[in-house]
Amino acid sequence: MLRTNRWVASIGLLLLACGREPDSSAATGGSPVGMTSGGAGAGAGATSTGGVTQAGGGASTAGGAADTTPDPFSFTAQVDVPTSTLLESSAASVTGIDAPATVSIVGGEYAIAGSAFTATNGSVQVGQSLKLRLTSSAVPGTTTMATVTVGGVSASFNVTTQSDTPVMGSQSWPMFGHDYSNTRASNDTTIGAAQVASLAVAQRITGAGVTSTPSIVDGVAYYSDFSGTLKAVDEATGAPLWSKKLQPGMLTNSAFVSADSVYTAGEGSTVYAVNRETGDVRWSKKIESTPYNRIWSSPIVVDDTLLIGAASYQVFFPTTPTFRGSVVGLDAKTGTEKWRLSVCPAGECGGGVSVWSSVAVDQATKTAYIGTGQAYSQPAGPYSDALVAFNYETGARVWSYQITPNDIYTINGGSLDRDVGAAPNLFAATIKGTVRQLVGVGDKGGHYTAVDRATGELVWQRRLDQRNPPGSPIGGVMGTPAVANGRIYVTNNTSLNGTGRFDARPASCTAFALDAATGEVVWSLQVGAGSFSGNVVANGLMYFVTYDGQLRVVDAATGTLLRSLPIGTQIGGYDDAAEGFPNGSTSGPVVSNGRIYAGYGWTWGGTVSGGLVVLEAD
């Protein structure tokens, strides 16, 4: 049985924290009303028109007294906006006054006649315009408001973040990147710097290796493992709720959890949808037929479409017919293919261009963004090692930005192997006084690149890897960065160790915080082991896991390493007998409900032991 009561309680607490009572639409998952009546300045005898509240009785002008009560005004609500994004309202003109009127605001900032935004009380004159500004919620499907009061008349600017199918509360982590913007930023404030020293493993659920980022929804943790099994366990106790073996081995990607289904994918390029309560298979769909095909991309469902990348390990076993990478849109209810976008079109690309990356989604523009891999044979084509934007309803390409041109690589030789395997991040940044909507991504060439979300125009690029040439086959940026508070938190692998394919690992990395507006380095930290894991930010802390299974906890403000602790039974070196790293980790950690979740156990092929751990602090 789904934990509906817990979800309703979470929504209620969230709304109360915002100064709102939970209403029936919120409690049932319905869309919040875009324009709300009432607001600051409303009280007994107040009247409401649209999004405007006017104090009852209006203003008196008898005896020539100044009239500082304006005519009603309003701001257009914005819906389906990205999470954690700075947004400006439409302009509203102030009319109906004959003397300056006082201005105050709750929940945001205002600007008068194009002046700088401020939250300080001020005054406005007739004919001047007002604009409001606020930051959207970090929680999908949540409404945030800024309410301005002018001479006793109030109006609200409401913004509602894009839905997470369903709206599931501030502590949920329902998909690979936490949200459609891939912020990998948690709202949990339970664990701070003071609690780091007491972090310890509270639950250990052993089994096969786990390289996925766990999904946490309504008190349940969902994850896949190297035995080909998708599992649901109690988030606090680890008690099994259901387990479904979907294939012989290696389910490596992260599950997407919707209102009634859980989605995953893996060997044989098969995508699965299972019943969220029981694990029973609703449908399965094979999306690629060339030899040595496989899915590493994590499924993302938006509206009624599942988005996923197709990939191949022909990079190790060249064969015919040649694999050609693509992004595929499936009907989320049936698995039927709706469209396919080739990133290695015949005539432009010789073959390859696996899509290891997972999408970021901007519902407001119906645009999705994904990274691509290198080509396997000449020519490389324009869409290899690139960031690609496309319409998620039709699959039509909007633009592409190629980070490394002419990259052709297989295990038998080639040039660079500089895939864009990390998932893109969506974020806003104020640049020269203008709020810009950006998409950024890291690549194995050791760069983080930020471009304009609408046009693909380069805004800035930061080279993180100082080797010449930068990057390597398992170097550069391999894990997806986190974005929070105007900073990008990213790790870049800087050296390689191992004698062969099975024991290859990144021997070192550097963690960075970058300014989201400029790409300037805020701080950097050298770490004595490299990382494949996604990064996480929560309550002033940055988390990532290195290949040897150590959870690294870093002060997000200063870059100080606060603690390293193994999540396996010991620090995870290479095990010859297992041909892998049973105590190592490539899993991205998750912070939710006062706990940290991470998988351990990985190998380059076959299977390996491992499991899921739950860490808590005293």
Keywords:
single chain; 618 residues; mainly beta; 5-stranded mixed beta sheet; 40% strand; globular; disordered N terminus
Verbal overview:
The chain has 618 residues and is an all-beta fold. The protein has two helices and 47 strands. Strands 1, 2, 3, 6, 8, 10 and 11 form a seven-stranded mixed beta sheet that branches. A hairpin with a 2-residue loop joins β10 and β11. The longest helix has 14 residues, at 4-17. The protein is globular, with a radius of gyration of 25 Å.
Short characterization:
With 618 residues, the protein is mainly β. It has two helices and 47 strands.
What's the total helix number?
A: 2
| Quaternary status | single chain
Overall SS class? mainly beta
Number of strands: 47
Low-confidence stretches: 1-63, 164-169
Radius of gyration: 25 Å
Main beta sheet = 7 strands, mixed
Q: What's the mean pLDDT score?
A: 87
Roughly how much helix do the residues carry, as a percent range? under 10%
Distance between the termini: 30 Å
**Shape summary:** globular
**Strand percentage:** 35-45%
Q: Helices and strands in order, then pairings?
A:
Elements: H1 4-17, H2 24-27, E1 47-49, E2 52-54, E3 78-81, E4 86-88, E5 92-93, E6 101-106, E7 109-112, E8 122-124, E9 129-135, E10 143-150, E11 153-161, E12 185-186, E13 200-208, E14 215-217, E15 220-224, E16 229-234, E17 240-245, E18 256-257, E19 261-265, E20 270-275, E21 281-286, E22 293-294, E23 300-302, E24 305-312, E25 326-331, E26 337-342, E27 360-362, E28 367-371, E29 386-391, E30 397-402, E31 409-410, E32 413-414, E33 425-431, E34 434-443, E35 447-452, E36 458-463, E37 482-484, E38 487-497, E39 505-515, E40 521-527, E41 536-538, E42 541-545, E43 550-555, E44 561-566, E45 590-592, E46 595-600, E47 609-616
Parallel strand pairs: 3-11, 12-41
Antiparallel strand pairs: 1-2, 2-11, 4-9, 5-9, 6-8, 6-10, 7-9, 10-11, 13-47, 14-15, 15-16, 16-17, 18-19, 19-20, 20-21, 22-24, 23-24, 24-25, 25-26, 27-28, 28-29, 29-30, 31-32, 33-34, 34-35, 35-36, 37-38, 38-39, 39-40, 41-42, 42-43, 43-44, 45-46, 46-47
